[in-house]
Design goal:
Elements lengths: L12 E5 L3 H27 L3 H29 L1 E5 L8
Antiparallel strand pairs: 1-2
Helix pairs in contact: 1-2
Length: 93
Amino acid sequence: MAPTPSFLSQQPYNVRCTLTFGDIYAQVLIWMAVIFVSLAAGLALMGASRPLFALVGVGLILVLSLPFLLFAFITTLLNHIALVPQQDQQGAA
């Protein structure tokens, strides 16, 4: 039988997520600003008798900005995940 790797035989860990809304607040505000600017541009193009350009423009802005939003949120989330060693429960009893 193969020996157990040393990192598996150590004490167990708890996974803690320390992410709060304040950590992603700026990201949400920026993406909301992008949405409102694209909708304003779409309405401006609608008024200029270019409805097809308006729809394509709004869709393009939203589709191109979504990966950046997801990347920013996922990296922020991963930066706030911590492995905390479990406390010894036998010593407290």
